[in-house]
Design goal:
Chain lengths: ~110, ~120
């Protein structure tokens, strides 16, 4: 049956503010990292990725930072909009393996 | 537009029924596709890796006779939940991985999921 009692970490931000979502990964052999956005009732949608030979990558309104020393990944969203409200997952994998390992996710709520 | 199409989006059926879910890669040939299961407010849990032309690889704890996977072509993988029971009710999501290139791994693209409810 379904598990109960587990709650996603949450982050609430005012519309127009910047959002920072954090993720810790465990496998030091991971060399490819992805951020996905999942809206209610839908599948994950690709946002941005980064390889382990980089520590920063920028997209449209989003920036991913990678700190391999402490195995930490973050997603920064500039000028957060109501449409950014969703659950955000980080995912990691190793080039030798095709399987992704997902983080626990963060529920982002944008307040008007 | 959608890169991966998953069908149906929702199924409600009686206990004991077998249910087939289709996952199609629309923009590229996918030798590898993945099936995930997601409970409310939880992360995605990988169930199995679907390999075109060969047997699927199942994660520990996933019953291969319960969750039948067929990847008969480079654009289609199917997941059949056999003799479904209420505890099989969940959100099932597939993904497709572009072929590996010299650039290394590319992001998996996900379908929009199938909400399975067994009465």
């Amino acid at each position: 049956g379904e598990s109960v009692g587990l709650h996603l970490p949450t982050l609430s931000v005012q519309e127009g503010d910047n959002s920072i979502i954090n993720c810790a990964y465990s496998n030091s052999a991971s060399d490819y990292f992805i951020w996905y956005k999942q809206e209610s009732g839908k599948g994950p949608q690709f946002i941005i990725d980064i390889r382990s030979n980089m520590d920063k990558r920028q997209g449209q309104r989003v920036t991913v930072l990678l700190n391999k020393t402490v195995k930490h990944l973050s997603l920064q969203i500039a000028a957060t909009q109501p449409g950014d409200s969703a659950v955000y997952f980080c995912a990691e994998n190793r080039q030798a393996a095709r399987q992704l390992t997902f983080g626990s996710g963060t529920q982002l709520t944008v307040l008007p | 537009g959608a890169v991966v199409s998953q069908h149906p989006s929702r199924v409600i059926c009686k206990s004991g029924t077998s249910v087939k879910i289709e996952c199609r890669s629309l923009d590229f040939q996918a030798t590898t596709m993945f099936w995930y299961r997601q409970f409310p407010k939880q992360s995605l849990m990988l169930m199995a890796t679907s390999n075109e032309g060969s047997k699927a690889t199942y994660e520990q704890g996933v019953e291969k006779d319960k969750f039948l996977i067929n990847h008969a072509s480079l654009t289609l993988s199917t997941l059949t939940v056999t003799s479904a029971h209420p505890e099989d009710s969940s959100f099932y999501i597939c993904s497709a991985a572009p072929p590996l290139t010299g650039l290394g791994n590319q992001p998996q693209h996900f379908g929009d999921g199938t909400r399975l409810s067994i009465l």
